[in-house]
Amino acid sequence: MPTETLGPWPLPADLEALHDAVIEFALGVNGRVDAQFEKEASRGPLAYKALQRLHRTAIVIHRSVKSLCVAGWTATTPVVMRTLVDLLVSVFALGRKPEDAEFMGFRFMAHSLIEAMYDPDAEPAQQQRDKVMVDLLKSNLSAPDVKRAADLTLAYQQKIPPYWYWPDIPNPGTAIKQNMGRLWTLWHHFCGSSHGADVGSVLFSDNPDGAGINPEENPRRTRSATVISSRFLLDISYARAQCENVADEDEYKRFVREYIKPQEGI
Questions:
Q1: Residue 135 reports pLDDT greater than 90
Q2: What is the pTM of this model?
Q3: In a domain, 90, yes or no
Q4: How many structural domains is the chain composed of?
Q5: 181 exposure class (CB count in 10 Å sphere: 0-12, 13-18, 19+)
Q6: Which residues have CB under 8 Å from 211's CB, separation 6+?
């Protein structure tokens, strides 16, 4: 009796090249940002660190999409690719007003710490540690922003915001619909809360009516997942580059022309 094949199923050469090229693009942006930051001794660190954390997470998620596809779990990739959209919204929130970048960096870095400070079930010792960390982050701010940070912290005591950037941006969907219209349909498909993740899992299976519980090869949808994940990482990297004033528009357009556009007709 033949043994059922349970992978792995390596990516085709062109998808492997796309996957690796966008990582190189991301690393190039990261290198330029790091070099610039080292030269600007007077610059605050919070926006830099927040964007660095978001960018790193995006690179890791992109790599995980490949791992899922190769292992036969392509239908699950919308779950993690949804996070790429959320990361893009956070980068947008950080960089949309350069004069507020450091304060927004504080808000991003401190959000979970402030939330934990007011958690009624948290241990007092842990709450104190969280407060110390918030105060450390706050020490990097200018005097006017220290006052804003203090007011923000008090506001958390009254109500924990649903998103770290709320109320400036009400929710991710609003940010995408108003500022990134071409991503709206993808975000909606990936939004598990609106349809129980069913649409994403169906769209990313080559055989949705016959899908089982074992890993399966999905060559058509693996291509879709790899291209979409690559485009998200490309856009997150370019958005970070724009925030940090190291963007190379010609390089970005060349990448789209040479790597993304050829996949649209396949």
A1: yes
A2: 0.92
A3: yes
A4: 1
A5: exposed
A6: 75, 205
